Amino acid sequence: MALLFLYWGIMLICYAVASKLRDRKEKFGFVGELTNVVIYILVFLMGLRMGANSEVTSNLGTIGLQSLGITVFTVGGSILAVHFTRKALKLNKQGMPQLDEEGEEDAAEQQNAGGLRFTVIILAFVAGGMAAGYFIVPEIFKDVEDFQSMSGDWLVAGICVLLGLAGFSLGIEGKVAQSFRGAGLRVAFIPVAAVAGSLIMGALYGIISPLTVSESVAVSAGFGWYTLAPGMITEAGFAVAGAVSFMHNVIRETLGIVIIPVAAKKIGYIECTSIPGVAAMDVCLSIVERSCRAETVVYSFCTGALMCVCVPVVVTLVIG
Fold first, then answer.
1. Burial, 5: exposed, middle or buried (Cβ in 10 Å; 0-12, 13-18, 19+)?
2. For 194-252, what is each residue's pLDDT tens digit?
3. Residue 91 DSSP symbol
């Protein structure tokens, strides 16, 4: 939780600073490109850590298939639940009231130009990082745990920079406060739908898989938080479910980073915020802001925040 306060403290400070510089907005056009560079560095570092993690690489067989299966179910459940909720709230594909569909579609096409290219670049950096982590890191570091500890600090620093840039970008635009007012109570329904969709489909996966329903729901309740949920499940005596949880959460966060730009264009802006889980409020926030509208950040933050709160509560209740 201390890291969350750090991340959001940095973001709010940068937002406040940028809000005082809106009259010089044209001088900060480089922030968008700088944000992209930081994203590429971060996803490469995440790939590096995954490739160097023997728990990930050694469980790419049966446990890997289980993890992939429950990820498909839970992410699909969140997307479907958010999609139907968006329809019920009379919001269009771009998350705006259904007033001027044609104008919104034209704006969406223009804003999403290059989304596929962005996805391919991110995927390449993740794959390159994993390969380097698997083949090169063990040759440089005698104790891989030292690398994991050191790179963890790098990751925290990178996320701080990324969120600082995101806060600055949102502050210079000045649309977030207006977006909260415009969304109103609608902003509360989307996160609830995303959480419910994951848990329901997690229970369904438990019915058709070797995992029990309680194990499967506990795994799905990790919402991409791979540093917390797996440990809680393993400590409760469910070693296999803990391993599945770790890989599932890693896959969910990575999936969000990779496919948000394409999902935003093909499925919907609000739907894409439900993909990465908890990361929707930190690592993926800048990707959402770049791939969607500035207004979509409101839904992304609230979805990630609710999932963050739900992880320790739901996992503890279900696995107990």
1. exposed
2. 999 999 999 999 999 989 999 999 999 999 988 788 888 988 888 889 889 988 998 99
3. B
Point out which residues pair with 91 in neighbouring strands: 97
| Count of other CB atoms within 10 angstroms of residue 68 | 16
Count CB-CB contacts under 10 A for residue 105: 13
- CA 16 remoteness from chain centre: 24
Please report which helix (H) or strand (E) contains residue 109, including its range: helix 101-111
Sign of the alpha-carbon torsion through 33, 268, 246, 62? negative
- pLDDT tens-digit readout, 149-197: 898 889 889 888 988 888 898 888 876 666 656 556 778 899 999 999 9
Burial class (CB in 10 A: 0-12, 13-18, 19+), 193: buried
Residue given tokens 């104790």 in the structure block:
143
Contacting residues for 117 by C-beta, under 8 A, at least 6 apart = none
| Token pair recorded at residue 84 | 């139907």
Structure tokens at 91: 């919001």
Per this entry, what is the length of the chain? Answer: 320
Angle between helices 213-220 and 239-266 (to 10 degrees): 50
Nearest CA-CA partner of 271 in 68, 112, 86: 86
Radius of gyration of the chain (CA): 19
Strand partners, 97: 91
pTM greater than the 0.85 cutoff: no
